């Protein structure tokens, strides 16, 4: 029974700021990687164009395609088949992963649990592998061979898997941050993500 000096409800637990930042950074990197995968897939031979993809169910598809083509011609809408555009995606993702590694190392120093420290160390290792795979993908995209595109797609799929493995491997104090992230995705609206990754373009939201 609560005394007159004891509150009926426990005070809300605050989430560690460094964990919030880490998960947001990892999520942003995952989103950009996913956008790159979508862009790479849509740029494959035989895949329908972006305009066709967007305007397929429009009220006036012909007019829709015409307007999008005009936007693309005027530079208002980035082309998804441009390898340079994909490279911008990947370099942005690599930069964010470097930030995630720094945040994970900082969080590891503030957590006393050896198990959680090991999980963060594994996360740092996965991000290191991912940065190497992103670098390999950038090199592969400079080659016009179909096999190079297949290699890039495989590496980027692995990068995306690494992100989710990292998030799933965190427990304890880090787990509360994971729960905070999953329950607070509204804190990363499309506008903010677009500001954080201006090169993302249409692909992030497909």
UniProtKB/TrEMBL annotation:
<dbReference type="InterPro" id="IPR035513">
    <property type="entry name" value="Invertase/methylesterase_inhib"/>
</dbReference>
<dbReference type="Pfam" id="PF04043">
    <property type="entry name" value="PMEI"/>
</dbReference>
<keyword id="KW-1133">Transmembrane helix</keyword>
<keyword id="KW-0812">Transmembrane</keyword>
<keyword id="KW-0472">Membrane</keyword>
<dbReference type="InterPro" id="IPR006501">
    <property type="entry name" value="Pectinesterase_inhib_dom"/>
</dbReference>
<feature type="domain" description="Pectinesterase inhibitor">
    <location>
        <begin position="46"/>
        <end position="187"/>
    </location>
</feature>
<feature type="transmembrane region" description="Helical">
    <location>
        <begin position="20"/>
        <end position="40"/>
    </location>
</feature>
<dbReference type="GO" id="GO:0004857">
    <property type="term" value="F:enzyme inhibitor activity"/>
</dbReference>
<protein>
    <submittedName>
        <fullName>Pectinesterase inhibitor domain</fullName>
    </submittedName>
</protein>
């Amino acid at each position: 029974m609560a005394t007159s000096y004891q509150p009926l409800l426990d005070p809300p637990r605050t989430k560690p700021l460094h964990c919030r930042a880490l998960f947001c950074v990892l999520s942003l990197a995952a989103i950009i990687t996913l956008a790159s995968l979508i862009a790479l897939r849509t740029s494959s031979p035989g895949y329908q164009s972006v305009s066709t993809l967007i305007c397929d169910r429009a009220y006036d598809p012909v007019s829709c395609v015409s307007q999008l083509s005009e936007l693309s011609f005027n530079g208002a809408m980035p082309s998804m088949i441009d390898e340079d555009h994909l490279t911008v995606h990947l370099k942005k993702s690599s930069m964010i992963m470097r930030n995630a590694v720094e945040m994970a190392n900082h969080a590891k120093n503030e957590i006393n649990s050896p198990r959680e420290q090991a999980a963060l160390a594994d996360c740092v290792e996965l991000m290191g592998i991912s940065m190497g795979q992103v670098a390999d993908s950038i090199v592969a995209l400079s080659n016009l061979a179909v096999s190079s595109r297949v290699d890039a797609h495989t590496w980027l799929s692995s990068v995306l898997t690494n992100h989710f493995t990292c998030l799933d491997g965190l427990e304890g104090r880090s787990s509360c941050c994971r729960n905070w992230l999953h329950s607070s995705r509204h804190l990363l609206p499309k506008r903010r993500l677009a500001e954080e990754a201006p090169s993302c373009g249409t692909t992030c939201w497909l």
